[in-house]
TrEMBL record:
<dbReference type="GO" id="GO:0043565">
    <property type="term" value="F:sequence-specific DNA binding"/>
</dbReference>
<keyword id="KW-0804">Transcription</keyword>
<dbReference type="InterPro" id="IPR018062">
    <property type="entry name" value="HTH_AraC-typ_CS"/>
</dbReference>
<dbReference type="InterPro" id="IPR020449">
    <property type="entry name" value="Tscrpt_reg_AraC-type_HTH"/>
</dbReference>
<protein>
    <submittedName>
        <fullName>AraC-like DNA-binding protein</fullName>
    </submittedName>
</protein>
<dbReference type="Pfam" id="PF02311">
    <property type="entry name" value="AraC_binding"/>
</dbReference>
<dbReference type="InterPro" id="IPR003313">
    <property type="entry name" value="AraC-bd"/>
</dbReference>
<dbReference type="InterPro" id="IPR018060">
    <property type="entry name" value="HTH_AraC"/>
</dbReference>
<keyword id="KW-0238">DNA-binding</keyword>
<keyword id="KW-0805">Transcription regulation</keyword>
<dbReference type="InterPro" id="IPR037923">
    <property type="entry name" value="HTH-like"/>
</dbReference>
<dbReference type="GO" id="GO:0003700">
    <property type="term" value="F:DNA-binding transcription factor activity"/>
</dbReference>
<dbReference type="InterPro" id="IPR009057">
    <property type="entry name" value="Homeodomain-like_sf"/>
</dbReference>
<dbReference type="Pfam" id="PF12833">
    <property type="entry name" value="HTH_18"/>
</dbReference>
<feature type="domain" description="HTH araC/xylS-type">
    <location>
        <begin position="172"/>
        <end position="271"/>
    </location>
</feature>
Amino acid sequence: MNTSSFPLVTEKDLQLPLYLTSIGHWESQERTRRPAGFPDFQWLQVLSGTGELRIGDRLFTVKPGQGFFLFPREQHLYNPVTEPWDVHWIAFNGSLITPLLRQVGISQSGVHQVFAPDNLIMQMKNLYATSISGHPFLGMECSKQLYAFLLDLTRSIWMSATSSSPDPMKLHPVTQYIEENCHRPVTIAELADRIGVSSQYLCHLFKITLNMRPMEYVNRERIHKSKEWMFREPTLKIQEIAARVGFDNPSYFSSVFRKLEGVSPERFKKSHGM
């Protein structure tokens, strides 16, 4: 069934970092030509059939399991090749979109393979239902669901970017091991052994997946644990906290804490009433 919704966008909604402008579904998407582009960002997810997308001199084929981003005010044309071309679409805007897309290297309109497209379509259906629900805080509710959808969408695109992309869940045994053992000295080789890879490949996995080195992650976990100790036992001295979370040198602990939190451990405790 063809559906479309154009929820009311108030002046207050326009101040949200993300807001929904339209959403819908075409069982048989027709030829669409926009010489002046479209005012908002769009994502179109293909359920079945095949289509073509033309953006300037670039021509793409769009198949099931794929979708395409359209950036605002960019001339484009898309049309079915194998009918029916079943397409779910969503249009949105806001200041948070560009940083979200930049995380997965998307800076222009184009076609992308996605991981678990059925999940994305289900989220779009849920968002459509919300958009016509008459919710008293419709803009905020749609913004909340749109944020979750875009996070899942960008993750799905990243996971499907190339066949050689590492599985982000491969690091789970390592991060779990760090959480359980960061109170004592740990080495990169020790962490690499948890998943049977070399130290060099572990560093590569961390860089690709989390954009940091393994020992950076260890220190972040230690600082996280130190804040838990501050709340759990407010009378502990800073040097005692440092020792409990795996820092031999209290000065180094304070330096890392300040770098990550922007304040010293002492100031952090005071600002939280400890």
